[in-house]
């Protein structure tokens, strides 16, 4: 039985380096996809350089994606193709799902009973105490702590269910795995029989890892948000008179240890509506690799108590 860690990549070398080091002793293969376009459809160069991660080179399978999925919605006017604002969210989801699903290209050597884990690259599972050999659940979901801007700036308002996994024989697609509801449904929920996102045979793994969100400079945070899956809502907030989300605004949020994204807002509600405080926590919250290498990553910790 082998463990395959699957993720997508844009240009996040820092978090990828940390991810490889944390997971290396548990994982047999690292699979990475990168596209020549962002989730907003903006063209980009391929940024991944395997030589930056020479220690893990033999374990890494990299898949480059040249073209967008064929189901992107474009409008045409005067022989020019463009996206309506109303289609931006749908197109963003289709682009990221396509990038996730292309990870299947790297799973040809995986056997039916090998475990396939998927996370965005800033969602790192804690595999230290989990025994895959004795697991009997069909779906694994890792309950993770959420951090912003720095490794130890903790957002305690929610738990994050980022990493999900299953055996290859149960894998429908990587986007299917990502979309599974983070809940173990009771036996009387017969609707689970006909659902591809709700399951009874689920194991929620407590202390399941770390979501290191927005571990970037303010400028890179702005670039990411303008090109992310939810870029259309971010752009609406950015250009609003209420709070123009320019670089100074983001820099101020980071300095004050605040986020302005409401994770608990419903999908149909506006999520950039309030500010929430982050909490500086001790190294005990961190994976062992970061505890041992805090000096190396000193600038990415908040030590202001």
Please characterize this protein's 3D structure.
The chain has a single domain (about 1-305), classed as Spore Coat Polysaccharide Biosynthesis Protein SpsA, Chain A (Alpha-Beta Complex), CATH 3.90.550. The chain has seven helices and 14 strands. It is α/β, with parallel strands linked by helices and about 300 residues long. It starts with a strand and ends in a 13-residue tail after the last helix. It has helices at about 15-25, 85-100, 175-180, 220-225, 230-240, 245-255, 290, and strands spanning about 5-10, 30-35, 60-65, 75, 80, 115-120, 125, 140-150, 155-165, 200-205, 210-215, 260, 275, 280. β8 and β9 (about 155-165) form a beta hairpin. The protein is about 20% helix and about 25% strand.
How much beta, percentage-wise?
Answer: 15-25%
Number of strands: 14
Helical coverage, percent range: 10-25%
Number of domains: 1
Order of helices and strands: EHEEEEHEEEEHEEHHHEEEH
What top-tier CATH class fits best?
A: Alpha Beta
Shape: globular
Main beta sheet: strand number and arrangement?
10 strands, mixed
What would you call the structural class? Answer: alpha/beta
Report mean pLDDT, rounded to a whole number: 90
Provide the gyration radius in Å: 20 Å
CATH 2nd-level architecture: Alpha-Beta Complex
- Distance between the ends: 44 Å
Structure annotation, total helices: 7
CATH topology-level name = Spore Coat Polysaccharide Biosynthesis Protein SpsA, Chain A
The unreliable regions are: 233-244
């Amino acid at each position: 039985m082998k463990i395959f860690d699957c993720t997508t990549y844009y240009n996040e070398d820092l978090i990828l380096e940390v991810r490889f080091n944390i997971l290396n002793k548990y994982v047999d293969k690292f699979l990475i996809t990168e596209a020549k376009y962002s989730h907003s459809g903006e063209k980009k160069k391929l940024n991944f350089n395997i030589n930056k991660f020479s220690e893990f080179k033999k374990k890494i399978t990299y898949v480059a994606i040249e073209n967008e999925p064929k189901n992107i919605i474009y409008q045409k006017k005067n022989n020019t193709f463009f996206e309506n604002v109303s289609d931006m969210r749908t197109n963003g989801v289709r682009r990221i799902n396509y990038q996730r699903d292309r990870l299947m290209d790297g799973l040809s050597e995986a056997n039916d009973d090998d475990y396939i884990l998927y996370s965005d690259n800033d969602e790192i599972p804690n595999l230290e105490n989990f025994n895959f050999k004795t697991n009997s659940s069909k779906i694994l979901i890792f309950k993770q702590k959420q951090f912003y801007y720095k490794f130890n700036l903790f957002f305690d308002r929610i738990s994050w269910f980022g990493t999900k996994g299953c055996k290859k024989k149960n894998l429908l697609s990587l986007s299917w795995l990502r979309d599974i509801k983070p809940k173990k449904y009771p036996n009387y929920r017969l609707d689970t029989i006909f659902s591809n996102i709700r399951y009874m045979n689920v194991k929620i793994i407590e202390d399941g890892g770390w979501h290191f969100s927005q571990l970037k400079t303010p400028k890179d945070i702005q670039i990411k948000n303008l090109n992310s899956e939810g870029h259309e809502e971010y752009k609406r907030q950015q250009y609003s008179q209420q709070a123009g989300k320019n670089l100074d605004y983001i820099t101020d949020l980071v300095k004050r240890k605040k986020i302005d994204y409401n994770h608990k807002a419903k999908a149909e509600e506006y999520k950039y509506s309030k500010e929430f405080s982050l909490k500086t926590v001790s190294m005990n919250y961190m994976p062992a690799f970061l505890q041992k290498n805090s000096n190396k990553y000193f600038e990415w910790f908040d030590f202001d108590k």
